[in-house]
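Run log, item B.
One chain of 444 residues. Sequence copied directly from the ordering sheet:
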Amino acid sequence: MLVMCTTPKEERLQLVPLAQRLVFAIFTFQYDSSQTPFPRNLRVFANDHIAQLDWTLAGGSWRHSVWGDSLSLGLNHSIPPTGSQLAIRFSPAMHQASNLFQQHVNDLFKLSSLPNDVIEFSESSDSVWRLGPKEVLCLENLLPWLRMLPCKSQRGLGQLLDPYLLLKSDYLAISLHLSISENKSIKVAQNLFVLLDLDYLESDPFSLFGLFQFKGIPKTCSFSSSVSIQPHELTRQFENIHFDLATAPQSSPTLKYNRYVLGHGKLQGGFLYVIQNSSPTASFKITLIDKFPYFLRVFFHSLQLDSSMSATIQSSFDCLNVSTEMPPSSRVRISIQFEKKLLPESEYPPDISRGFDLPNPILVVDEHQLFLDPAVVLLPSPDLSMPFNVIAITSTLFAFLFGNLYNALFRDAEMLAEEQNKVSERLNKILTRFRRSGTKEKAE
């Protein structure tokens, strides 16, 4: 069941009930540069000869095996993977996107760009798509995104977006899509994906304001021409709507896909990709794309495809690209081996025992982009405790030698003898007083 709250051409809210009493909410805000006010920081991209820009930042985890994906849920948007994603046609503008959303893109340069056949605007040679598997979505990224809305978070559907409530959710993602024409006009689409838990609500059936814990006075955005909530129809109003989300679809996804990390130790390992089509009637054309980071040396001669179907393999030294046709009730297993590199000491993070994050592989299914789960690998690392031991021993020896040398050069034995004599004279005087007082008491 889908409940849609729509403002044509500008604002849209889609609520999708999931299993385990969860609700997946998708906000969409669309506007262009002809409207006023328009964010000034977005006009800068029009002066840099940028045709398109896609930026996504997601936090939390999305369990596609339990909740489904964009293909099984019938969504028009791809569910963003955990981490950051930046696709841009003019790569020098990546630093401007970093300043716009308070995000560091230096780590994204370490990952090679994905092949152009998975980028929507791949006809340009300057198009770049970078993935960052370890990026934290926090208030510093969310607030600039909210300020770019036509009515910000003060009117319209933006009133439902409480930053503190959103950051408490199990999954949260924000995205920005820019499309710049030749006459420098800009079209903007902002999307927000959030997973809400119905167990925090008190009453049933649920209301739109209760779902987002909104307690203020609803105000209509001046850019909104109409609001329609199926099956209700409202015109230029933003009201509290009651609906029932208790019944969620319990059917499992027909296409299941996972990636497993093989091997043990810190020298060698492998990947195993398992894609299964459990539908008895439907067939899918799939393309698996996995971009390997620079710290893995992949052996493509060890690539094995466990499937009776024919497949097309287009791979480079750091990218795996496999395309095949999956008939009903079929399964594909792809395995490949790799070797882990020893990096310079300066490139290891402070939490070295946690491992290094790998970007999400991309699975293209009938023009739908799906993302596999991320993974973590342990790399061979130097013993970082040895520098600490050397520093500790050296400091102890230096303090011991310096103390003895200082005492030998600057301490005088005669001065110590004079002080000891003064102390002994004082003690003798005190003892003689006690002795005299004791003799007087005996005489009495």
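Observations after the first pass:
- Residues 86 and 130 are 5 Å apart (CA to CA).
- Confidence is low (pLDDT under 50) at residues 1-8, 119-125, 228-237.
Flagged for discussion on Thursday.
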